[in-house]
Design a protein that fits this description.
Chain lengths: ~160, ~250
């Protein structure tokens, strides 16, 4: 009886050893197949697709943040008080600031200009800088306005 | 008799040793090995699918050759300063203004550090692009400068506007407050933009790259680009070169 049991144990040992070896062989066979196929993957055809896709991704990001100068200047035109004349306009995207210098004949028009800019939802802060009047009575002024978050006019 | 007595305990001990030392560990490792096999089978299948997808993706690029050429021209692999200069000059003349200055500065920093889409995997996968900054100075009327800025914004070269300005040209004899100066066209404009380019590099981590998980390319951005570019600069024909005295 004990001998039979011993033989059964030996058979079970042989069985599990064979089963494990089969799995190990299958794993190494699959690994070499994957390694072979992976080598085949790299090449000009894959490079072409990856390069095109990478370029498109970056182009997409750039288009999302594209500045529409026409809309920005159009907005400026709408905000202008007729009695005020600009001498300088600067839009700086990196500093997120718009700087304006101009001349007018009265402080009333300057105030109206500042109010008009403040009403623009693109700006968070409109600050009046230097204000001076020259010998002809013309009032020279400068104004800066901070751009709100994504106030950059985006061309979609 | 003594041998017969010893055989039974010996066999029992051997059975225990075989069962505990060999059979049990092998049996315990079996689920792990089964999982490893199915994982490897999945990997092999996915590599096969990627190979098929690469063929399909190349097929769609072949079918959209013009789009591929547009993307390559818009976003070149080399620094194409000549094209940028030519484009700015062409657009200034189209807008009826004159270009009074041009400054090109090559930068070592990488442009898409600032235009990351927030997805770490995408940012890691996509190579960094190089840039150069071009500042163009123009003079002319307000309408002309505005038209020039608009044309440059929609030109067929990958770029990002940094700043632009318009001011009364005081150098040409006009006083800062002179309405006649502005009306007469004595305005100066400046336009600063970063132009990008990206050398071609071999694809890496192909099997895990999401591009190769699909058999179709998304051309939506390319279509957006086609409508965004409203100003195509004609390619400069190769100028005839050669003269006997270069200093004459």
């Amino acid at each position: 009886m004990v001998v039979v049991l011993f033989l059964v144990t030996l058979a079970a040992w042989g069985g599990t050893w064979w089963y494990t070896k089969t799995y190990d062989d299958k794993i190494s066979q699959l690994e070499s197949m994957i390694a072979q196929d992976t080598t085949k993957l790299s090449g000009k055809r894959a490079d072409r697709v990856a390069d095109f896709s990478n370029r498109l991704t970056l182009i997409g990001q750039n288009l999302d943040a594209a500045v529409d100068t026409s809309s920005i200047l159009g907005e400026l035109e709408q905000n202008m008080v007729p009695e005020v004349r600009l001498t300088m306009y600067e839009y700086n995207r990196n500093d997120r600031i718009v700087s304006i210098s101009g001349v007018t004949s009265s402080f009333r028009y300057l105030a109206a200009q500042v109010i008009s800019l403040k009403k623009d939802s693109s700006f968070s802060q409109v600050k009046v800088g230097d204000v001076s009047s020259d010998e002809n009575g013309l009032i020279k002024f400068s104004v800066t306005a901070d751009l709100i978050g994504d106030a950059v006019v985006v061309a979609k | 008799m003594n041998l017969k007595v010893l055989t039974v305990p010996f066999l029992v001990v051997m059975m225990l040793i075989i069962a505990i030392g060999y059979i049990w560990p092998d049996l315990s490792a079996l689920p792990e090995k089964r999982a490893a096999v199915s994982e490897k089978e999945e990997n092999a299948a996915s590599v096969g699918a990627v190979m098929n997808n690469i063929d399909a993706l190349n097929g769609s690029l072949d079918a959209q050759k013009e789009t591929e050429q547009l993307v390559d021209r818009y976003f070149p692999e080399n620094m194409d300063q000549g094209h940028a200069i030519d484009a700015l000059n062409f657009m200034a003349s189209q807008a009826g203004i004159s270009m009074s200055g041009l400054d090109i500065e090559v930068s070592n920093s990488k442009l898409n550090e600032q235009v990351s889409d927030g997805a770490a995997t995408t940012a890691q996968r996509i190579p960094k692009l190089s840039k150069y900054v071009v500042t163009a100075k123009v003079s002319g009327s307000y309408e002309g400068i505005k038209d020039f800025f608009n044309r440059v914004s929609h030109m067929d070269l990958f770029h990002k506007v940094i700043s632009f300005s318009i001011s009364v040209d005081t150098k040409n004899g006009a006083s800062a407050g002179s309405a006649a100066a502005a009306a007469g066209g004595a305005l100066t404009g400046a336009f600063e933009a970063e132009f990008g380019y990206m050398p071609k590099r071999p694809a890496t981590v192909i099997e895990s790259d999401p591009i190769f998980r699909s058999s179709q390319l998304d051309f939506a951005v390319a279509n957006r680009l086609t409508t965004f570019i409203t100003n195509i600069v004609p390619t400069t024909d190769n100028q005839q070169t050669g003269k006997p005295n270069p200093f004459q």
